């Protein structure tokens, strides 16, 4: 292989007469490697960018008058052995003597970075080159051999006075099998041989004498300088105007999981000349495009593509600011995501997508938007980040998310690209949403046997996305993909068997497919398997096993699993009740925009569950959930506006939110709306509408609505009176352990309402409801014990129940009867002053029948004292205000 340097060098003879020597570019025969030097300092002789391939004997000549000289062929530079692709490029620091000085002592020795100013040749013979400094150079016929043979990583230096030395770089080629200079950062790329462009921004360019502290070695062999060289210069200085900053990735950039918002990537900052940088990027792009075409053709033909991945890996260690490098990184990520030329590795694909996406590559951004939204084994779901990446794609005017996918899809028919491009049209990433285009691309991918294309095609048929809905066809494609091991299709197939979509409902088969997908790490399937174990669907009910699967899914960031796990911790399902953990998992899911978790987190703030009670924050989270259409949040907002929780009381606003949830068949909201119509809260009172909404809620099995409906039938509210239906609905509600209904069933037995009278059953039911802390049941049980109706008379127990209902539940009739007992000394020592107090409390809480008892008691007290004292007594009890 022959390579000629095309650069202008200034040679100065002993008479300080400058003569320009030119190295003329010629055709290179075996490689496309062109190595470029740079201008040298005026008044010094520099031999820059001399090329010395490892273990290759080389004769290097410079000629003037455009004449070429060589011992073998008429070329400016001859490499006797072709430079194989297993060489990598390396920059090495060198110091050169000032050849105008007479005390220069220039020697050749063998070794690595010799600090004694020597480079020993292969035969370990030392040749003295001191005569070079004083001997005049015949510029008319300059057959000037720089050296006869070099060892890899040779350097020049001089042991003389340091004032005679200037520092510059020697571009050196070394075998990749050897260790590189310890001061260089070298991506160990194998078998890569690209065009090399690069010019040192040298000390002479800076017009200062300052050593370049470090050099860098890349797969393209860039002749570049460490950033530390310029630490004392401003951006406005001339060197910076001529230089281009480049960022060379360190190995850790692709081996660690960097943060999406990271600004400090693991790179080495270096500089090169702007003119050379343009050529560098142009050459990279030219070579990459040629390789890409070969790669896509090979994929279509089903031939080996591993070599392309190796070369692509080498390019990833070039300048991150170069468009084609960022694109190459994204394509390499795509290869790992879909197993093209390498084993499929989702986590590794994410590690490649991130750096190029951070640097503005839209293809990488679009893939991250998808992976963070839906997840894959090894990639944690984060829908907040997914939305951010999608937004970056939308705002990206310098890079296209779809151009490469379109080329690979339409020109080369790459099934994986067709699937990925379909996703862009599906979610509107980089393009407008187009369900028909998405479907057609999925279909093309699926027909080529791509399992992911088949799986998503099944989804389209199942949901009627871009095609007429056909659930049986959906199952067919799910099955094709699932049998190829596609975990998403396995999950969807399980869902079909769970709900009977396109197939007969078979919970056992649902669990089977969920388990297959879950074991592959599919977060959706893990959550569903947890649900099956929690509810006993197709498997024995096992709350602990449910929590296990919820945890596995939640750790992968799946928001439904995070919310479900929080619920388990809140109510102690399969795990010890832990409100702190409940709030933690709700918060994680809520931050991802999960509506139900946002609602549940609002509930935690409203009630102070492991967080400081903050009703305003509760309303904020309810609103966030409501914005996503969560009907629970609609109802909760209605409650807040009705009761002034975290907001001012706004009854019309409350009714608005109740209606929004009620029309979506939310039973609690239907009940609340019925209550508003029943009592004229925020709307005009309307018993017919109240009955209608109670009835709608009761149809869904809401226990409170069933009880309210029973009351409507009992009293004839909004419907003709029907005591049997009243008893029927009371009983349905009571069967769900509603203490209100249990008490009402007891009252129906006591009074014979819609059923034959049975006092013993009445007392039995009163006692059950009373033990469930129902105030009215306590009062009814107290009356039965007080009078001995349906049970043995027990005045002390009667007082105990009256007092409990009065003190703990502010039950007005119980207050009244407690006052009676205290006034008359029934089951308790008589205390008329205490009796007066409880009569007053009963009146304040709405029991108007206590007014006459209070007046009667006060009259009695007045007759027991003299007139003056009675006036004082009457003034001490404000009967009128209580009434």
From TrEMBL:
Gene3D superfamilies: Tetratricopeptide repeat domain. Belongs to the sel-1 family. It comes from the Eukaryota. InterPro entries: Sel1-like, Sel1_AlgK, TPR-like_helical_dom_sf. Pfam families: Sel1. It comes from Smittium simulii. This is HCP-like protein.
């Amino acid at each position: 292989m022959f390579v000629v340097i095309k650069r202008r060098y200034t040679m100065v003879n002993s008479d300080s007469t400058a003569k320009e020597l030119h190295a003329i570019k010629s055709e290179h025969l075996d490689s496309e490697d062109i190595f470029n030097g740079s201008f040298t300092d005026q008044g010094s002789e520099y031999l820059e960018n001399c090329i010395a391939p490892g273990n290759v004997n080389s004769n290097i000549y410079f000629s003037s008058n455009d004449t070429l000289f060589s011992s073998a062929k008429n070329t400016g530079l001859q490499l006797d052995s072709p430079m194989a692709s297993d060489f990598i490029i390396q920059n090495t620091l060198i110091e050169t003597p000032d050849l105008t000085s007479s005390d220069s002592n220039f020697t050749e020795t063998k070794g690595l970075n010799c600090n004694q100013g020597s480079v020993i040749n292969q035969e370990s013979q030392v040749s003295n080159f001191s005569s070079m400094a004083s001997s005049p150079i015949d510029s008319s016929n300059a057959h000037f051999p720089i050296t006869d043979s070099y060892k890899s990583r040779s350097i020049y230096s001089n042991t003389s006075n340091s004032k005679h030395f200037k520092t510059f770089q020697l571009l050196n080629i070394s075998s990749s099998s050897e260790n590189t200079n310890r001061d260089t950062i070298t991506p160990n790329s194998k078998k890569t041989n690209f065009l090399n462009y690069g010019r040192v921004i040298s000390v002479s360019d800076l017009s200062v004498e300052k050593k370049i502290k470090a050099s860098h070695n890349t797969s393209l062999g860039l002749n570049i300088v460490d950033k530390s060289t310029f630490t004392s210069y401003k951006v406005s200085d001339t060197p910076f105007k001529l230089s281009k900053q480049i960022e060379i990735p360190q190995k850790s950039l692709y081996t660690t999981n960097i943060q999406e918002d990271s600004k400090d990537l693991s790179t080495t900052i270096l500089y090169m000349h702007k003119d050379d940088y343009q050529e560098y990027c142009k050459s990279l792009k030219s070579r990459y495009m040629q390789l890409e075409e070969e790669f896509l053709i090979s994929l279509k033909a089903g031939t080996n593509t591993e070599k392309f991945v190796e070369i692509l890996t080498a390019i990833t260690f070039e300048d991150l600011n170069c468009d084609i490098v960022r694109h190459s990184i994204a394509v390499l990520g795509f290869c790992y995501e879909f197993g093209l030329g390498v084993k499929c590795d989702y986590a590794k694909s994410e590690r490649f997508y991130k750096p190029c996406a951070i640097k503005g590559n839209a293809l990488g951004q679009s893939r991250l938007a998808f992976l963070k939204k839906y997840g894959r084994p090894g990639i944690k779901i984060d829908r907040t980040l997914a939305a951010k990446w999608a937004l970056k794609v939308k705002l990206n005017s310098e890079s296209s998310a779809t151009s490469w996918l379109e080329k690979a899809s339409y020109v080369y028919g790459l099934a994986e690209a067709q699937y990925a491009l379909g996703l862009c049209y599906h979610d509107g990433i980089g393009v407008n949403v187009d369900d028909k285009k998405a479907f057609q691309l999925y279909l093309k991918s699926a027909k080529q046997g791509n399992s992911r294309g088949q799986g998503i095609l099944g989804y389209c048929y199942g949901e009627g996305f871009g095609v007429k809905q056909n659930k049986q066809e959906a199952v067919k494609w799910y099955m094709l993909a699932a049998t190829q091991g596609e975990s998403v299709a396995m999950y969807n197939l399980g869902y079909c068997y769970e709900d009977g979509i396109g197939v007969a409902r078979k919970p056992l088969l649902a669990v089977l497919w969920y388990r297959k997908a879950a074991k592959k790490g599919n977060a959706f399937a893990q959550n569903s398997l947890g649900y099956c174990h929690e509810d006993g669907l197709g498997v024995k009910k096992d709350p602990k096993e449910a929590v296990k699967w919820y945890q596995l899914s939640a750790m992968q960031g799946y928001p439904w699993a995070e919310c479900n796990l929080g619920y388990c911790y809140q109510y102690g399902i399969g795990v010890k009740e832990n409100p702190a953990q409940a709030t933690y998992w709700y918060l994680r899911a809520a931050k991802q925009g999960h509506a139900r978790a946002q609602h549940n987190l609002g509930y935690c703030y409203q009630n102070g569950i492991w967080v400081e009670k903050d009703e305003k924050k509760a309303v904020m989270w309810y609103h966030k959930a409501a914005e996503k259409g969560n009907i629970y949040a609609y109802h909760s907002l209605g409650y807040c506006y009705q009761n002034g929780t975290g907001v001012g009381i706004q009854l019309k606003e409350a009714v608005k939110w109740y209606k929004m949830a009620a029309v979506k068949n939310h039973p609690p909201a239907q009940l609340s709306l019925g209550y508003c119509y029943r009592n004229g809260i925020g709307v005009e009172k309307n018993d017919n509408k109240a009955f209608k909404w109670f009835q709608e809620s009761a149809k869904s099995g809401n226990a409170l609505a069933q009880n309210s409906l029973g009351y409507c039938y009992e009293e004839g509210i909004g419907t003709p009176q029907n005591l049997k239906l009243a008893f029927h609905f009371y009983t349905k509600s009571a069967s769900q352990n509603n203490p209100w209904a249990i008490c009402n069933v007891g009252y129906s037995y006591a009074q014979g309402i819609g059923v034959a009278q049975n006092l013993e059953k009445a007392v039995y039911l009163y006692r059950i409801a009373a033990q469930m802390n129902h105030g009215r049941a306590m009062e009814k049980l107290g009356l039965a014990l007080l009078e001995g109706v349906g049970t043995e008379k027990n005045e002390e127990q009667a007082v105990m129940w009256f007092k409990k209902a009065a003190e703990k539940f502010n039950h007005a009739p119980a207050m009244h009867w407690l006052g009676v007992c205290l006034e008359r000394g029934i089951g308790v020592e008589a205390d008329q002053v205490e009796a007066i107090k409880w009569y007053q409390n009963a009146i304040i809480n709405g029991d108007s029948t206590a007014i006459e008892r209070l007046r009667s008691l006060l009259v009695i007290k007045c007759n027991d004292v003299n007139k003056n004292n009675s006036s004082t007594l009457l003034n001490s009890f404000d009967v009128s205000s209580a009434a």
